[in-house]
Amino acid sequence: MPNYANDPSRTSWLHVSENSDFPIQNIPFGVFITKDDVITIGTRIGDYAIDMGALQQLGYFEGIELTDDMFMQDTLNDFISDGKKTWRLVRNRLSDIFLDSNPVLRDNASHKDIVIFNIADVEMLLPVQIGDYTDFYSSKEHATNVGKMFRDPENALLPNWLHIPVGYHGRSSTIVPSGIPVHRPYGQTLPNGETQPVFGPSKLVDFELETAFITTDANLMGEPVSVKDAEDYIFGMVLFNDWSARDIQKWEYVPLGPFLAKNFASSISPWIVTMDALEPFRCASPEQSPEPLPYLKQTGNHAFDINLEVAIKPETTEETIVSRSNFKYMYWTMSQQLAHHTVNGCRVNSGDMMGSGTISGPTEDSFGSMLELTWGGQKPLKMKDGTERKFINDNDTVIIRGYCQNEGLRIGFGEVSSKLLPAIDIKI
Amino acid sequence: MPNYANDPSRTSWLHVSENSDFPIQNIPFGVFITKDDVITIGTRIGDYAIDMGALQQLGYFEGIELTDDMFMQDTLNDFISDGKKTWRLVRNRLSDIFLDSNPVLRDNASHKDIVIFNIADVEMLLPVQIGDYTDFYSSKEHATNVGKMFRDPENALLPNWLHIPVGYHGRSSTIVPSGIPVHRPYGQTLPNGETQPVFGPSKLVDFELETAFITTDANLMGEPVSVKDAEDYIFGMVLFNDWSARDIQKWEYVPLGPFLAKNFASSISPWIVTMDALEPFRCASPEQSPEPLPYLKQTGNHAFDINLEVAIKPETTEETIVSRSNFKYMYWTMSQQLAHHTVNGCRVNSGDMMGSGTISGPTEDSFGSMLELTWGGQKPLKMKDGTERKFINDNDTVIIRGYCQNEGLRIGFGEVSSKLLPAIDIKI
């Protein structure tokens, strides 16, 4: 089936500003609530949120096999379950509905009134109910930086890293959409030079620049998904800030991995950009040496050229961009991650989320965490307002943005923006 | 509100054999499917499964505030969400309905026909939709054994272990009820003395003897649950076999913890035994030294005296009991685990599951895994049929049983039984 929604010559009768992340070629999927407390599945063109539930009720999806209430739901899980063919049919249909030359909705004022909202008038919700969330650790530069700081500078990469897309399970219940503030977490830490741990708010709260992909039902328990087929089970991608408390992490993580240092909050951008929309930005990954085992071996281009940046905005002054990176630096691809995840028969469901791991580029200004950017706090970052940051301060907002760009087209994710609030007042 | 369902003098008009795990004082909760494909929430007395959906439709829960379809659901999540007061009201009511002296259902043949099934005629399903699953590592004996084998025999316990109920996130999608067979998983391993990993079926599949507790909605994101209040948010417990592939685990687990070595399958017993039913078996925990930090400190008895055993049954011969242990050996209590889990504001929802970690006792015959029982395969176990086991063989069934016993009363869990099938045939 042609993916004609990607045609760069298409324009919409909805206004799209020049540098918008959301031209008619994007058509991402999300869930929003209107001022009248209606929750619906929707898409976005320019600065307009489109109510797909209303579109469905008005008959705009006729001819596509969908359950009657497919878009009148508060999560995308059922739609994602329907699989790649349906995603493409719906995305093509949306492209047609908003195509410049199509008068059907364009010239129907009462329908437009029901269907189209200013983006500022809706609140974005979590787009999927995330059953299971896995975080990978697939940036070689990040793994090397962490290894240098915490283990052995001469043998920074652990022996398994070049053979395994290392990953671990995370917590679904604290994944929140952009805009939800996060409190500085409490926890146990071991102060430098001490032997007894202390309890209190984390002193070293950090962001992690990541992306994440959302899956459809990929397999039954016991059945691996091959690396060749894996991309068919990936619905789309979001930006992801994997909030981390470095002092809690350092004390707790041996031997079973990070736990409370990570599960206090994880923030995602609310619009899932489909793999169909990202197709024009497919590119090569870094060379893999040694060659991966056969179940992870793939040919062709499986990376995506996605520009990423992180800004820190203090409460009352302007933001400072602290990192510029790119998703294409990842050593392991998403299809390798998914093939590895299922090779033991682990079941993957619709709405599961898999994080890339911190995305660090090759240069110091492309590192994906304050831990790396300030090299463990040794080299504070200068902010535009003259203050310095080793880690994230109370009331700072961390903003991650991402977009793809070629000569004719920009496809973006918008942003994931979340404010770090002070620790709550607790008496324990 | 009195918890009178626990009265040991009560007897039921339903037959309960002498050593049954399910006297009228138990009243566990589960979900089953009948031969007519009806899925319902139910309880068990003796060898009878009770259809609580049918009981509700017939008016037997009148006077208790419940949504109309509370028990006509395929998970217990909504019921568990209703909180401790409702659990107790329903359990007391069930005790009354089946009380020897109560003729209402006893003498109504047509109602009995609808409500009561032989346990052999129903299939037990997963009792809850598990949003997030966490596994702890709270047996000091187990952590010490593993530390001796894999790290430093002189410093077997890691420095954080006595201060933190160490835990990590697991995979919800592959938690299955007793009776579902499990395939030997594929994965990467590093053969002894080699530097390049190989791919194939795991050679060292193991069980882990655990229990798990199921929570109700405990908090909002950002709000800790105090150790004092934690027990109020625990609905009940199940037996838990945390299947593990030791060779995959050894190669993959540094630095982010076990992943594919664990997430191919985790098996639980299908009846959730409530904390109310376990109340008579409350007992002291091992002394905690050093004293825990204030947020983990508690007084009184917070352990439970639950006898546990593990049997291995080869395909065609009789079973051999390979371990006898007790839940009371756990160093950290469930309330400490839950308080720790939420101290950073991590949200805990209805139906979340938290595993104890492998439960090993102080003696060699009370260890909770083949890894420990055979000391890494060095001391194979003799089976009754004359064969030996270092780990679990294809077509072996692993059975975990658990029960509490005092002079007057036995409250049990039944069993979690699952067969290890050979690796599937895959071409990669």
TrEMBL record, chains A, B:
Cofactor(s) needed for function: Ca(2+); Mg(2+)
| Name of the featured protein | fumarylacetoacetase
Q: Which UniProt keywords apply?
A: Calcium, Hydrolase, Magnesium, Metal-binding, Phenylalanine catabolism, Tyrosine catabolism
The Fumarylacetoacetase N-terminal domain sits at 25-127
Q: Please name the gene that encodes this protein.
A: fahA
**Residues annotated as transmembrane:** none
Give residue ranges for domain Fumarylacetoacetase-like C-terminal: 134-402
Q: Name one Pfam family in it.
A: FAA_hydrolase
Q: What is its EC number?
A: 3.7.1.2
Query: Matching InterPro entries, A to Z?
Result: Fumarylacetoacetase, Fumarylacetoacetase-like_C, Fumarylacetoacetase_C_sf, Fumarylacetoacetase_N, Fumarylacetoacetase_N_sf
Pathway(s) of this molecule: Amino-acid degradation; L-phenylalanine degradation; acetoacetate and fumarate from L-phenylalanine: step 6/6
**GO molecular function annotations of the record:** fumarylacetoacetase activity
